[in-house]
Design brief:
The complex is a heterodimer of chains A (319) and B (479). By secondary structure, chain A is mainly α. Chain A contains 15 helices and two strands. Chain B is 35% helix and 17% strand. Classes of the chains: A mainly alpha (319), B alpha/beta (479).
Amino acid sequence: MTAPIPQPPHVVAGFTVPRVMFQVLAALLPVLAVQVYLFGPRPLLLVAVAAVAALACEALALRLRRRSMQPFLRDGSVLVTAALLALAVPPTLPPGHLVLGVACAVLLAKHAYGGLGQNPFNPAMVGYAVLLVSFPLEMTRWPAPGDGWDAMTGATALDALRTGLRQSYTMQEIMAGPAFGRVGAAGGEWINLAALAGGLYLLARGLVRWHIPVAVLAGIAGPAALFHTFDPGAHASASFHLASGATMLGAFFIATDPVSAATSDRGRLVYGAGIGLLTWVIRSWGGYPDGVAFAVLIMNLAVPLIDRCTVPRIHGHVR
Amino acid sequence: MKLRGLTLDGHKSRPLKGLIRPVPPPAMLVLALDQGAGEAAAPVVRPGDAVRVGSPIAAGAGAATALHSPVSGIVREIAEHPAPRGAGRCIVIDNDGRDEPAVPAAPVDWRAMDGKALLGLVAEAGIAGLGGAAFPTATKLALARAAGVDLLLLNGAECEPWICCDDALMRERAPDIVLGAQVMLAATGAQRCVIAIEDDKPEAIAAVESAVRATDDARFEVRVLPALFPLGAEAPLVAAVTGREVPHDGWPPQVGAVCQNVATAATVARLVRDGRPAMSRIVTVTGSGVNEPANVEARIGTPVAALVDACGGYAATNVRHIAGGSLTGRMLVGDEVPVTKGLNCVLLATAADLPLRAPEVPCIRCGDCADVCPAGLLPQQLHVAARAGDSAGLARFGLDACIECGCCDYVCPSSIPLTARFRAARAREHLAEVERHRALEAKARYERHQRRLAEQAEAERQAFDAARRRAGGADPGGG
């Protein structure tokens, strides 16, 4: 038996999955830095706990599935899942809760479907959804910026807005509350700015294409602007939506997970716009603090259909 | 029109430092009956026959061109021998070193000939596409003539890394290219000729432009294209120059163009200038595995080892021999394989030239492959269909439009050998198609057989009834 003859091409760019993943992690650093600045060292603790838990779960799953550890433990994908989840939950979430979320993300959402590249749902958002329905109180209250380790937690801006409107407060009264900042949520607007910076880095490095982030932001801002124009007393402005909650993190880091997203350029636009629109709908009429996680999971469901309907025209084929 | 592909390091400067070097004819030449197009020519000589330079030794058939002896000497044998596209039957000739011509060199009065006669001349001379496919030039030109094409598209793009034989030819022999193109215009009836060259070859562009000016032929245009792999492949080239898409199941004459390589045109020029058939070609010998990378002119049938000798010998041990460039080249078994009409480059690659790829990991659907696919495919989806053996999916995602350029492999962060998978899937689909066809034929045969049996039984029953009626037998149902 001789070795198989190497087949062309004989040269590759050498850009590998670990390099993709570690650049995504690097792009998340501004978000982590702003969270630490606003809320003290707790976010650091959560990221560390999530990372260790994620690696342990990955190793366990690989062992149970009798797969080799080497390439998968080192590819960094599980660290991206862990970091996204840790940065999406409130810094005051007990670390034990977070470990449960990470375990669901890695074991159920990722490895139950076949591991890297096989998951139909965004693992971090599955973990987030499990935590949100299991620990509604801890998951919906964020500390006020600058309070440090023993922070008093309160409703988020998106929550305060919804509650205020239901209790017939005027928009001005609501926006004067402690949860609100200059444009969006207090603190939240800075986190969104940091996520935007990291996202622009990803765009510049060609790690994400513009289609999904732009479509997500347009999907949120479009209807928000429309409803705000006609009924400013009942609907927050587009800029408020863009600078609150997980808008930027969702648009640049979560919706762009290629495994669970649509895969053609047109498909990405449809997918992103769907996430944006659903996020705005859930924020406006739903019962959850933010809509990004459920919007992403619902659009994950639609990906096979979107992919089927958006196959680009092939060179030399008439469509 | 969106041109997709890769911008790559060309590795072309070292062989282009010097001029084209002639390779001394070796003592023994091996002429593969399949010069690269996938079909074998029919030998017209036997072992022991004496041949001279230009003597016909094999007749063209199908996709195989006629072969001529590049030296004078004796046919030693016709036997299996390693060749660039795998082992195959070859005519082996012992060179007597005298280079006696079969007929004295004489120019051909091609301007007095009509298209049909020119096509016959090109076919007889065994001229094949020197870009690598080695398809018979006369056949291609004849089909173009029948389709009434308007544009002769000369391919001087040479987009693949390492290969620079066309660049050297354009720099040194541009007038030949223009003359050959004029003959091809006459043979096809095309009205104009575009010579397409990528912008990483300024010397070649200048040389060809000056040759075109010198001929003062208004039908010519030099078109400078961006250096983008695989723009030199037929369908992307036609799209880049004309803006028209070649149908996926068709070919360029359907959109009014016929493509020919610049080196093929130069061979045609040589044919009309001194009556010489196709007996040599320019080959790039390059890579860190050779001491003096160069473009060499070698007679067809010269072993690769002689090319390496002409370039100062090996510079490293453990060298990979690749026929062609780093993206689409094929591995050679070693340096005993001979030069064929389809061999444009011998890349003597060290591990540093072509680092081994990382182990394959699962696809993460990043879509980098789709961004570079010149055919506008979604390789990430095609890969899923290929892995599942999903024929309908392969068809829907356009496997038939894949030109196997290797761009998707090149960018894949998961190191998936996509091109090899697609090639294998294509072979499997072809086999399945043949099987389906066979099964249908067998079914039809079986049904015909059953019908015949039924007809026969019916005829026998009627004959039996008639016989019984004649015999006055009782009705079996009546009693």
